[in-house]
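User: My instructor asked us to take a sequence, write out its structure as tokens, and then describe one feature of it. I'm not sure where to start. Here is the sequence I was given:
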Amino acid sequence: MKHFRLMWVSLVLFGLVSVLPHCGPGTGTESVNEGGGAESVAEVTAESPASEPGAEPGNEPGKEPGAEPVATDTNDAGTGPETQEPTPESTTTETVPEGSAGAEVFGDVVDFVAQTPLAGVKVCVTGPQGVPCVNTDSQGKYRVTGIPKDVEFVLSYEKTGYVKVLQPMAPNLGSEQNIRMISEQTLPLFANLLGVQIKKGMGAIVVSTFNWKRTQFVAGLSLSSDATGAEGPFYINAQGMPSKTLTKTSAAGLAFFVNVPPGNYIVKTKGTGGMYCAAKAAVPGPNEDEFKVLVEADAFTYVGTKCERRVAMSGTVTDFVSGNPIDQVKVCLQEPKGVPCVTTDAKGTYRLPGVPSRDGIYFSMEKQGYLTNIQTMDKGQSASYSVGMLQKALIPQLAALAGVQVKPNTGVITMRAFRPVRGFESGMTLSMKVSGATGPIYFGTNGFPDPKLKATSAAGLAAYINIPPGVQVAEFAGTSKHNCRLGRGWLGQNKGEARAKVEADSINNFFVTCERPLTRKVDEACYNSDIAKPEYDDCVADHVCTSGKCVAAPKRFASCTTERFCASGDVCVGSNIATISERYCLQPCDPSNPQCAQDYQCLVLSSGRGACLKKCSAKADCNDYGTACESVGSSTQQFCQ
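Assistant: Let's start with the prediction itself. The structure tokens for your sequence are:
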């Protein structure tokens, strides 16, 4: 039995079918744009309403930015230390070249117990006509060519004495498929480990969940199927053994359905913490997180998924001039596609769930009579966005104040520079090298264009108009006393650059975050409480600002505005209601595989990453960091904040 326990572990580590992308070593954390300020955390269910966010600098002059809350979903797969996730077998994933006449599938087939090559396995493609079957060579290698593009198909692997394996495939997915086939003699022992009796004439479904941006499987997913009479799902624990108590995937990322009647079915995955899954070696179903499955008698059908974390965009939309909320504003994610649009409510608030936590997204806000607002974002930037929309009728009047005319079918780019501690940033310049663009136009503290200004005023606002549609590059610069970075927008190739999407009759905003030098030490005033030294207002590293003065503290749990205040690898986290003195350097964690110390829990941040927050029952539990013991979102558990 010990031999077959090891055999089962081999199954989990390698999978019946290995179709995982080739990635470098996983770090467990993702890159952070430091200019975005501290991240926020909330614990809500996928259907819970977002907390109403505080205003963030958009087009509204004179409003001070505060902490940026975001509604995210928290992974509830576990709260304590877990076994380290296995690293998937490294393979190479190829995609079908654009314009090619056909695709190909290739790979290796081995015995999953002995891990030795299987020669003479018949590999066939069903669905498209005229694709010849092939046999694996003495090294277990195969290659099927001439598969038509843009056509669903099924790969089958058959050899006498082995259980048949099926792979329903969507068009143009990765072309390397490495197979681990189980012998018919091993199958009863495999069933015994699951605690079931496999029936003759029935099939099985194997589902593997994989984080496509990291070399690891995904924990915390639950699966379901519409296959009547099927047994399962059976989840495999992190040690590679079937568990009767697990209700979600472990770090092994693997689940099974057995005794499935032959036919066509739908398998659905459901993630926590904003995790969504798409097809990797599978066929997408009619709805998101669903997959089409073909089951045959006495065969295994494999479903390979690639999963990613998503967040919920939220904020408030108001009129630029009056400040009143605007309802029925259509908010849409333009890139990537696939997320349904939402509209603002009577308070002007919106919540756009299911936004991929990836580079290069952009969304729009549109209502008749107003200039369409476009916002671009890169990974790690805050998912809270509030803005003041400008009525189209006011554009000529504002342009006249600047002494310019507005050209038809052009767009606008604005830059807002602000400090994460207090107020907006003066002395910033904006430039663009775009033929026909007019600017820069700087706005005075009264919120109106001032042709005499050569840099931003205390309003921190600048603009270019008459920009032709397309992706344009804008440059920004400040004085040597300030460290200014792009806080929201698409990053440019060089420091001090932002890329902006421009459309006709639209306005694109990007934001610049400016930090002050770290000079204040023990007992010195901090966070601009010393009016005589307004340029030098932050504590040096290893210090915390407490009651307006710097106090020595370890780097972990030190107060921060961005991660440059923290020890290498730590994250800068603030709560939904945090002030600048309530943001701390905390240990990062992976929400899909939390590994926090005892009394800490991994919660999802606004970027989709995680941080270990300390659980508490009273303020006295938060002596090491935090000023309060409070719940997060709708959770009844309290955390130090």
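For the description part of your assignment, you could build on this observation: The radius of gyration is 28 Å. Try explaining in your own words what that tells you about the chain.
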